[in-house]
Amino acid sequence: MPKVKISDAYLFFDVYGSQLSITETGVKEKPTLIVLHGGHGIADHTLYVKFWSQFSGIAQVIFLDQRGCGRSDPCDSSGWNLAHWGQDVYDFCQALNIKKPIIAGVSMGGHVMCEYVNRYPEHPGALIFCNTEAKLDLEAMVEKFDELGGKEVAEICRQNYLSPTPESVDAYQDHCIPYYAKNAYTRAEVKRCLQHPEIFEHYCQHEMMRFDYLDTLSKIACPTLLMVGEQSPGHPPKCAQLMKDKIKPGLVTYHEFKGAGAPVYNDSPEEAYQVVHKFIQSIIASEG
Q1: Are β-strands 32-36 and 27-29 bridged in parallel, bridged antiparallel, or unpaired?
Q2: Per-residue pLDDT tens for 216-226?
Q3: Checking CA distances to 285, which of 79, 149, 183, 266 falls within 20 to 30 Å?
Q4: How many H helices and E strands in the chain?
Q5: DSSP-derived pairing of the beta strands 27-29 and 9-16
Q6: Smallest Cα–Cα separation from 103: which of 280, 270, 257?
Q7: pLDDT along the chain (288 residues), means of 10
């Protein structure tokens, strides 16, 4: 399996599509799209391949299992934090000589993107925030879970974020994830991932309820796409709207998918494909 040493860790990555587009008349370099998974400790990159690999015709798509997650080498709890994960994104690009990448972060992958932008605002060529937030709003999540699934489901959500345990993580997967979207990931799809639930528990206990990157978003210096589902309980639209308001107006494109949950592309696959494809094509066109 392909791995690269980043600092003191070996990170797994998988590549879809070539870097070069070769035709009869010439050779052009395609942009690199790096996809950052969410659900650290619960999910890995395999949950995201079906949708994001579709763009391998216009970009080289790289999926990264972040430090300690999936097929990357295990590490101790000192590496399970936004500081390491955010720095790893930049260091990964340096190791592979990737210039001006398009970075896509889904859910917790978006939290990592915020830390990366905080450290290296001039580095990315474009950003895609999908079903994520720069500051968690637990009460908004609980309210939406209550609306969709009732008070028991809402309370499972609350307890999992405030007092995570192996049992609460299992309960969340069983009772809350089915309400993420009309076409939510199945239990089998999530369990297919190589799971390390202690990472998620650690993140909830130390950073999930505390991080706040809203003011950091003003540092963004590249085109940015925000994608959010109108009916998403895990990532309420109000969080994405707050993000939009903090990014320079000329750089941000905001797309709310009507009736969709999280990820938006499970409920609105064709619409999501068109939105992302158009965005990437606009980046290619702007670079000549």
Answers
A1: unpaired
A2: 999 999 999 99
A3: 266
A4: 11, 10
A5: unpaired
A6: 280
A7: 93 97 90 98 96 98 98 96 98 98 99 99 99 97 96 96 91 93 92 94 94 98 98 96 97 98 98 99 91
Closest CA relative to residue 11, chosen from 141, 112, 107: 112
- Which ranges constitute the DSSP H helices of 120-263? 138-149, 151-162, 166-175, 187-191, 197-203, 237-246
Q: Which CATH architecture has domain 3-136+211-286?
A: 3-Layer(aba) Sandwich (3.40)
**All residues at 6 or more sequence positions from 200 whose CB lies less than 8 Å from its CB, including other chains:** 39, 40, 41, 42, 164, 169
In three-state secondary structure terms, 230 is coil
Q: What is the CA radius of gyration of the chain?
A: 18
DSSP notation for 6-31: ETTEEEEEEEES-SEEE-SS-EEEPP
- Domain spans of the chain? 3-136+211-286
pLDDT in tens, 156-173: 999 999 999 989 989 998
SS3 3: strand
* CA angle in degrees (0–180, nearest 5) for 28-95-283: 35
